[in-house]
Amino acid sequence: MSEHRNAAAEKHCHGGKSSESLLNKAQILANLPITPGQVVLDAGCGNGYMAKEFAERTGKAGRVYALDPHAPSIEALKAEVVGRNIEAFVGKITEKTQLEASSIDLIYVSTVIHGFSDSDMEKFREEVTRLLKPDGRLAVVEIKKEETPFGPPLHIRFSPEDLKQVIGLKPVLLVDVAEHFYMQVFAS
Questions:
Q1: Whose CB among 43, 51, 142, 175 lies 3.0–4.6 Å from 66's, allowing a Cys bridge?
Q2: Model confidence over 44-86: pLDDT tens digits?
Q3: CATH number of the domain that residue 25 is part of
Q4: pTM of the entire structure?
Q5: CB–CB of 138/36 below 8 Å?
Q6: Number of domains the chain is built from
């Protein structure tokens, strides 16, 4: 990653914004191996719209953790999901979380990786590796690295090939999940 990309990534902040209206949730969910009883982490959950979808699929025997650095979003989500199988907390996936090692079946990260600096990416890989179960999956949704009517500058976006290089896990699926978005799934 270049210094120019690092500087742009460090300035890029989502701060409570949501990509919910732009993504095809049904397409995302159809391509994720979520079953009852699993443990899912929605890292960078925003308002928690996908965490709620994951919670329905994991059922009462499962657990969904919703993580985001934007405290107002987490507080609102906590109030909304009282009594459900969702635990929301403030934090970053680029730092060590309170979650147990090898405890997560699926980590879902949507439209946040492009905002990572080199240092963030290294810490992200460490935390993902620490958290995923031996047969776990990492699902990354990103904005395509092409001109779009919205989104971050092209030079901080990742193509699927770029992601393969920086993630360091085995890619197992690549699918479009909206006009300007793709999801790439990796195996631990």
A1: 51
A2: 999 999 999 999 999 999 999 999 999 999 999 999 999 999 9
A3: 3.40.50.150
A4: 0.91
A5: no
A6: 1
